[in-house]
């Protein structure tokens, strides 16, 4: 498939040939859901902790005798039924992360990119060059490329350090590296903006994974 490439003024300058297997598939929404769920789970700290009746401060003595008082039987003031007692079945520190199959993750990337292209929400710019890496300079450039307001994800290469520095102060812009992306930011963005070098890098990485998949089947 072919996708248009624009310059810093938003004018089309050429067409770029990309793989249909990556940017032109029927989006698989289940893979996107699984990938985002995995990313959110892996980001959880899992440090929340409550105290059981063995851990709270308090006497271990029996408050009153078992029989004859007319009150309910109780063994310790630290029991979960009482105020300031322990917590029954409360959360403890744990690791929420798990490994998602690689083929599901790659399918999610291909689905998100294909979906954004179908919705006309993917923009490829030939290159982004900033003289000083200032936020104001970057904002002017962004307005030339995209007229409407929204939430944007900017996919760059590791060489675009000035652009990353200029965009990091903007709450509505998320910058990602072409070799370290995540499905959540790509999916929830109104527009994905990639440099030509970045989209070629993504195309190469995902194409390589497809070739490995075919080879493994053989």
TrEMBL record:
<comment type="similarity">
    <text>Belongs to the universal ribosomal protein uL4 family.</text>
</comment>
<protein>
    <submittedName>
        <fullName>50S ribosomal protein L4</fullName>
    </submittedName>
</protein>
<keyword id="KW-0689">Ribosomal protein</keyword>
<keyword id="KW-0687">Ribonucleoprotein</keyword>
<dbReference type="GO" id="GO:0003735">
    <property type="term" value="F:structural constituent of ribosome"/>
</dbReference>
<dbReference type="Pfam" id="PF00573">
    <property type="entry name" value="Ribosomal_L4"/>
</dbReference>
<dbReference type="GO" id="GO:0005840">
    <property type="term" value="C:ribosome"/>
</dbReference>
<dbReference type="InterPro" id="IPR023574">
    <property type="entry name" value="Ribosomal_uL4_dom_sf"/>
</dbReference>
<dbReference type="InterPro" id="IPR002136">
    <property type="entry name" value="Ribosomal_uL4"/>
</dbReference>
<dbReference type="GO" id="GO:0006412">
    <property type="term" value="P:translation"/>
</dbReference>
<dbReference type="InterPro" id="IPR013005">
    <property type="entry name" value="Ribosomal_uL4-like"/>
</dbReference>
<dbReference type="GO" id="GO:1990904">
    <property type="term" value="C:ribonucleoprotein complex"/>
</dbReference>
